[in-house]
Specification:
Elements: H1 6-16, E1 24-29, E2 32-38, H2 41-53, E3 77-87, E4 90-102, E5 106-111
Antiparallel strand pairs: 1-2, 1-5, 2-3, 3-4
Length: 119
Amino acid sequence: MSKTDALLVDVAALVESGRSNQMSLTVVTGGAVITGRLAPEAVWRERVSEVLADSVQLGAFAAVFTDERREDGPPRHLHFHVARILQGTVGIPETGGMYRVAIEDVSAWTVGDFSYSDN
């Protein structure tokens, strides 16, 4: 079992406090590199719910993300928006996605996001 990085938990806690959704972060998790901006979980859930509600096929899942369960203790997940998985010199998806990453699964991280190009 890995030990959770206390500094990363502090960064997540500050984002969760609602002070900012502009914190750019890049993490390595399960061999994937994810880069983007962090958002408070409530904001992230709301946005995912909106996207699902607009889908004919997935609309029924929107309610799952509006459940306001609040976990006690420090944050256990990072909630990325406008995020991409880096694959070579390409970011997937091109428009940015919404990712939830368990902090305990992060093996490396840095402040800021990586630039990439489709050339």
